[in-house]
Write a structure and sequence with these properties.
Radius of gyration: 22 Å
Bound molecules: magnesium ion
Strand content: 5-15%
Helix content: 40-55%
CATH superfamily of the largest domain: Enolase-like C-terminal domain
Shape: globular
Structural class: alpha/beta
């Protein structure tokens, strides 16, 4: 058996090289995945007879993360993850699941279109509905990959890269209001761990310089605090490390504009959501009037959320959240749309490692991938390593190695997940 496999590998690679489709040096890294995947194709399962039998869910992080489990008549299980607008979405999963039962999971794009258009108004969906659909859709890709013996990136058309660069969304340890020194220390710690890019928040609701908790115009003292914090980061990490700044869409247009101009000498990778995500005209004005790259997208849904933003030049970089934007197929379509405008794709990521690895398959499959988010707490909170089973380190020196296993390539430890399920919330029921 081993000989047969070896011979088949040799012929497959030789055929590709002989046809001049790939050079000898890239052959190993790009053809191996496909060849190995072909050899792994499951003979125990008959993909043509595969049917969905049950769709259930569980929640972690106080309901912030939704995990969807799709079971089949052949014992194969698919997993999907969604975040943010998913709290209390148990009945939505059940409803979508009832529509999926008896169907083959091998058509994620078609099922996503059925779900998207099958609710009210023939497709004009957003928010919770799209987030839940995202987890269901990802679980379908996971199942399809497992049934056919190929990783999700292969189903998405293959990969541009083997490793996914991540930036560290950095948590600052301080007593209340962090000082520039606190920022600098956190930045140095992240770089010491091997990250080549860091991100910091500068929106502080408890900034003592604020006069009113509802008004989000930053005065001179607050602007000073913002600038000094990030200047300390730049000084601490030097000129070669990428620095991103997040304002969480909280400020008004004047402040967003002023902060973007203020940050220009600090050569940021991007300034994220300087104003709320919705108004493309304001984004366009800020983007066009500053050399600081502006980034938007974690609160936009489906490809439609990005059409006008991209067409009007309302952002320099997009950062869709791939656990809520509409699915892995939809995420690839969004990335490809951005690529037509020469806009980089830098996904937001606040999910579990299941969501992180699912995102990695999309990031690998598009040319314009720039960098993906990674959370400091995923390195320190044991829950993240317990609930998702992966046989390699999750992140190493600022990169995630793309899984070559069938499907998304990670598994869920249901026992551990039950331990972390918030009280009163369902666990795969
Ligand atoms: Mg953000």
């Amino acid at each position: 058996m081993a000989n047969k496999h070896n011979r088949r590998s040799f012929f497959s690679k030789a055929a590709l090289a002989g046809a001049g489709l790939i050079g000898a040096s890239s052959l190993a890294s790009y053809a191996d995945g496909l060849v190995a995947a072909k050899e792994r194709t499951s003979h125990a399962s008959a993909p043509s007879d595969l049917k969905i039998t049950n769709v259930t869910c569980a929640f972690v992080k106080e309901g912030h993360d939704l995990l969807v489990k799709i079971e089949t008549n052949q014992g194969l299980v698919g997993w999907g993850n969604a975040v943010d607008a998913v709290n209390g979405s148990y009945y939505m999963v059940r409803n979508m699941g009832n529509r999926l039962k008896g169907q083959s999971p091998l058509n994620p794009n078609r099922i996503q279109e059925d779900l998207r258009k099958g609710a009210f108004f023939g497709g004009a969906q957003s928010g919770v509905y799209v987030s839940v659909m995202t987890a269901v859709e990802a679980a379908l890709w996971d199942l399809t990959g497992k049934a056919l013996g190929v990783p999700v990136y292969q189903l998405l058309g293959g990969k541009f890269r083997d490793k996914i660069r991540v930036y560290c969304d950095t948590v600052i340890k301080s007593n209340g209001n962090p000082t520039p020194d606190d920022y600098a220390r956190a930045a140095k710690d992240a770089v010491k761990k091997g990250y080549t890019a860091v991100k910091f928040d500068i929106d502080h609701a408890n900034d003592p310089n604020k006069y009113d908790k509802y008004n989000w115009t930053a005065g001179p003292a607050e602007l000073d605090r913002m600038y000094n914090s990030i200047a300390a980061v730049r000084q601490a990490v030097g000129p070669k490390i990428d620095v991103c700044v997040d304002m969480h869409g909280r400020y008004d247009a004047t402040t967003g504009h002023r902060v973007a101009k203020l940050m220009e000498p600090l050569n940021l990778m991007w300034l994220e959501e300087p104003v709320p995500a919705d108004n493309v005209d304001v984004y366009k004005r800020i983007t066009q009037e500053t050399s600081t790259p502006i980034c938007n997208g974690e609160n936009l849904y489906l490809g439609y959320g990005f059409t006008r933003l991209l067409a009007d030049g309302g952002t320099d970089i997009i950062m869709p959240d791939l656990q809520k934007a509409g699915g892995l197929g939809e995420a690839q379509r969004i990335a490809n749309l951005a690529n037509l405008y020469y806009v980089p794709f830098s996904p937001h990521m606040v999910a579990t490692f299941l969501g992180a690895m699912a995102s990695c398959h999309v990031c690998a499959s598009v040319p314009n991938f720039q960098i993906m988010e990674w959370q400091t707490y995923m390195d320190t909170d044991p829950m993240f390593k317990e609930i998702v089973i992966y046989d390699k380190p999750q992140v190493e020196k600022g990169f995630i190695t793309l899984s070559d296993k069938p499907g998304i390539g990670v598994d869920i430890n249901e026992k551990a997940l039950k331990k972390y399920t918030p009280q009163g919330m369902p666990v795969f029921a």
